[in-house]
Amino acid sequence: MPSEMNRLHSFSAVAMALQRGVTGLSMPFFFVMILSSLFDFVDVGWTFVLAPIGFVAGVGYGLAYYYRFTYAITDDTFDVTSGVFSQRSREIPYGRIQNVDVARGVLQRVLGLAVVSIETAGGGETEATLRFVSEAEANRLQRDIRRRTAAVKQRRREADSAEAGAGTATDTGTDSDPSPGSSPARADDTTAAASEPGQTPSADRTREETQYADSRRKQLFALEPRELLLYSLSSFRPAAGAGLLFLFAVASDPILDYLIAVAQPFGGPAALESGSVGSYGILTLVSMINAIAVTYVLNAGYTFIAYYDFQLGRADEDFVYERGLFQRYSGSVPADKIQAVTITDNPLQRLLGYAGLWVETAGYGPESSGGSQSAVPLADTSRIRRFAENLTGVEPPQFRRPPTLARRRYLVRYAIVAAVIVAIAFGLAQVSALERWYVAAIVFAAVPPAAHLKYVHLGYFVGEDHLVIRTGFWKRRTTVIPYYRIQTVSTRRSIFQRRLGLASVAVDTASSRTFSWGTPTIYDIDLEDARRVHDRSRENLQVALRDRARDDLGLSVDFT
Amino acid sequence: MESLHPRIRLLWIARSALAAVLLAVALVALEQWLPALLPVDFAVPPAAMAAGVAVAFGLGIIYAVRLYQVWQFELQDDALYLERGVVTFVETAVPFVRVQHVDTQFGPVERVLGLSSVVVYTAGSRNADVRIPGLTPDRARSLQNTLRELAVESEAEDAV
């Protein structure tokens, strides 16, 4: 089928031309400034000539970029060609696409535009970004790509069953294959076509289309206002601290004045220049409390805006989500690309009986969260647990805990941290007017509870088809890893662990979440148990792969 | 279990010698500049410094020898299995199905020593890619070929 080439929305031409124009305008400006300070013969006046030239060149480049940027949906791939001076064309096979995201900013929503990004597993950046297509086009793309991805999968599955039916014939078939290894997909296509005699490709397509029209998008979960509020107030992200720094950088003087004014009633200094050691201490304390409070408010506000009207639905075998108050994000995650499922909760959420559910993929999303998406930001713990069980098919986990020996390790570890804190206080007392440094020894009181809390929240469960790993007190994460998603298994023993006969087992998946969350690891279990988990994981991976080759047991999309 | 080529110890010792030189430079620089920055008397006899660097280098040699003793790998039924690590001992299994591609590499020092490395890439965390250093170029090539064949043989339909 001849593919039809598409251009971006014409507004993109204006945006690109302006953007490049401004770049073209500012570049001569900066260069002339720098050069005129270095060389005498360069005159600042040159900017008035060069800047307009730069602007025109930039606008020309932007327009050229717009006209040279095309994309097309073909039978097997999504194609993007771009580049003004050197053309780059990229073909993304549907089978490799991890997720398709659509983002709409405030201005873009007013203009009826959207940004579509397409993620695959490879590389650290988005595979293709269509900056500004019309909203209708964005929806069409999302739907079309999803449908074609599903079709590829369907074809593959049919080919597999055909192969399984052929039985012994496949062995000889692969041996005589002229190009082994690289062409299973192509071979699949031919067998699929052969297995459906009498059906022309076009007839196939119309059948798919009607099928798609029938399977309307179905809602799985919607975040209720109460849950949204709870989520905003009970989630803490350190990134909000960056917002605080930004605020401070923008308006440092009024903030300093405010902090001094607030601290004064408690015994803070009257001005920044005049004050005693004690009053500075109070100022620091009050400022810290203020900073924490403001960070909390910023964080709550951000979460509220980002997750406003969160909705999760399914369309065929994909999850589709939508969220955001001003900037509306929507995206789709193919269920069979999910690497692991994680339940998160913090102490406050545990106290209230709530938790969140995340699905992890290998893609890279528009946010730093990578390909993982919040499937359910916050819901009742029992509901979340049921979702996770329905989604992955894991049995209710009976967690095993590391031996109490592990707790002793944490006790020692935290005692060392406490000793370092006391040492720092001692050091400060030597060089400053700080008195009673030994009061810092109070941190030792926190050591036993901290070690105990870390210990009790550790757990692991070796299930029939899944490994479940739980760690963390402040941000507890319970990760469900299907055996067939395991990439590598490592047993690690530090010198301290070796002395105690303990080991940690790290189970790596392709989830891009491992960058920020770390590789899922079962910490400090008996070496024997570690070996057993290691071996079982390996065996079960092989078993699961064989089973999957027979019948496609994936994740169940209807998990609610 | 297969061990690495003994010459890899030379490479690791050379590496720790380089680290020792850097340490010596850093110590000398510290002694030169620290008194200017802080009103602290920081006078260390050159002999003590030399001793410190020598001890660091000695530890580096012991580390290299120990690492060589510990480093082992094996091609098992379903996976490439490796054991390594002096401070933290790590046993890793890389199932053949999960091998994305296999490289052989060698740097300038490795080339001088007549050694080569095999790097096995998986779709897992990018920093966890597995490297087997200290192989003869022939062994590296044959290992690469074997791994590639095994990976193709056990290819899964949907690795990621």
Automatic annotation (TrEMBL), chain A:
Coiled coil stretches, renumbered: none
Region (Disordered) location: 147-211
InterPro entries in the record: UCP026631, YdbS-like_PH
Regions of compositional bias (Low complexity) in chain numbering: 162-185
Pfam families xrefs: bPH_2
Residue ranges with Basic residues bias: 147-156
Keyword presence, Ligase: no
Membrane-spanning ranges: 21-39, 45-67, 228-251, 277-298, 410-431, 437-456
Keywords: Membrane, Transmembrane, Transmembrane helix
Ranges of residues in domain YdbS-like PH: 66-143, 311-390, 457-535
Protein name: YdbS-like PH domain-containing protein
Species this protein is from: Natrinema versiforme JCM 10478
Lineage summary: Archaea, Methanobacteriati, Methanobacteriota, Stenosarchaea group, Halobacteria
TrEMBL record, chain B:
Transmembrane segment boundaries: 12-30, 42-65
Stated name of the protein: YdbS-like PH domain-containing protein
Alphabetized UniProt keyword annotations: Membrane, Transmembrane, Transmembrane helix
Tree of life domain: Archaea
Coiled coil: none
Domain YdbS-like PH: 68-147
